[in-house]
Amino acid sequence: MNTLEKARLLGDAGKYDVCGGEICKPPEITDGLHNLPGVIKAKTQNGHFCSLLKTLQTNKCKHDCRYCANRAGCGQRKLTEFEPAELADFFNKLVERDIVTGLFLSSGVAGDPDVMTEKMLRTVRLVRHKYKFQGYIHFKVLPGTSYDLIKQASELVSRLSINVEAPNKSRLSELSSVKELQSDIIRRQAWIKRVEPRGGQTTQIIIGASDETDLEVLKMAKWEYMNMDLKRVYYSAFSPLKNTPLENRKKESPSRANHLYNCDWLLREYKYKLSEIKEVLVDEMLPNKDPKLAIAENILTEPVNIEDAVYDELIRVPGIGLKTAQKIIAFRENKKLKSDNLKKCGVVMKRAGPFIRVGGEQQIRLGAFT
């Protein structure tokens, strides 16, 4: 199998690992690299998009994850592996052609995780030292990897991650008989925290592969942020794959993952308490609407007076974000606030109107402030 064939196979095999807002359709490119599955666009923290080569070192794996096309014993796939020099050279060619600006490197666990991690590290060293690449590299830590290798990786790459996959030990045992949450994954997260990679660490939870509830997921996410200093938790909606034990399981709705992202944002950036979210759950599941709207309907029993509301009150109104709340407070210091000023501050009146009072008046119907 030649390098391009490996790139197509291992790029496609690596697509299930979420690394941010992704557009998986590759850019228009030349030189026989059309529609390469591993070239994706990922959204950065500042809202810009960068192009990444997202690939596995190998799709050989000893783990038996029931949702995964690369699981051990799945005989319906071609097995292959990049040699470090081969992958580093291929990545460099993509960089030289301005096709990608970064690398997301993961792998199946073929045998000893340290042996495969060593191969991944050799790839990264070649990329950094031989080809002098100074850009973004995301390195996936394999379950069972030793502390020393994690430390070596932290000195070479931008960001590290290891996926918890499930919200707790019992849910993970439903998905894999060989992965142990505490010893294989949480311990490695603690080591990643200790070595302090410059871009921090992230993780992923698969949504809908077991019968986990939204409350279970959010509890795990909150614990991860508090104890492991995570930059992000990514929520990947389960999609069944042929020739896996879960091929007949129902596909999870992307809207469920989106609502979990909404809650994640409320917990991390808006500093909501988990108890506020719990109050709108039904059987530990989020309602099928924007969580911020559901919470506002539950806790805002009377309109918020925009003219004297404090910051924490303002950001709990749908249609008022963090920067908008700051603009409202700054505007009030110099001028009397009126409804037309709110639009200039960035308030989305169709969302905020039913929950606010302006100049002593409450919006009764949605069109009142249009």
Describe the structure.
- The chain is an alpha/beta fold and 370 residues long.
- The chain folds into 3 domains: 3-162 and 177-192, no CATH class; 253-299, no CATH class; 301-362.
- Helix content is 38%, strand content 13%.
- It contains 14 helices and 11 strands.
- It has helices at 3-13, 84-96, 113-130, 147-154, 169-175, 181-195, 214-228, 254-268, 274-278, 291-299, 311-314, 322-332, 339-345, 349-352; strands at 22-23, 39-43, 49-56, 102-106, 136-140, 159-161, 201-207, 232-237, 304-305, 356-358, 361-362.
- The protein has an 8-stranded mixed sheet with strand order 1-2-3-4-5-6-7-8. A 3-stranded mixed sheet has the order 9-10-11, with no helix packed on it.
- β2 and β3 (49-56) form a beta hairpin.
- α2 runs parallel beside α3 and α4 runs parallel beside α6.
- The longest helix has 18 residues, at 113-130.
- The N and C termini lie far apart (62 Å).
Q: Please give the share of residues in helix.
A: 25-40%
Poorly predicted parts: 21-31, 364-370
Number of helices: 14
The helix/strand class is alpha/beta
Provide a quick synopsis of the model.
The chain is built from 14 helices and eleven strands. With 370 residues, it is α/β, with parallel strands linked by helices. Strands 1-2-3-4-5-6-7-8 form an eight-stranded mixed β-sheet.
Descriptive terms for the model:
single chain; about 375 residues; alpha/beta; 3 domains; eight-stranded mixed beta sheet; three-stranded mixed beta sheet; 14 helices; about 40% helix; globular; disordered C terminus
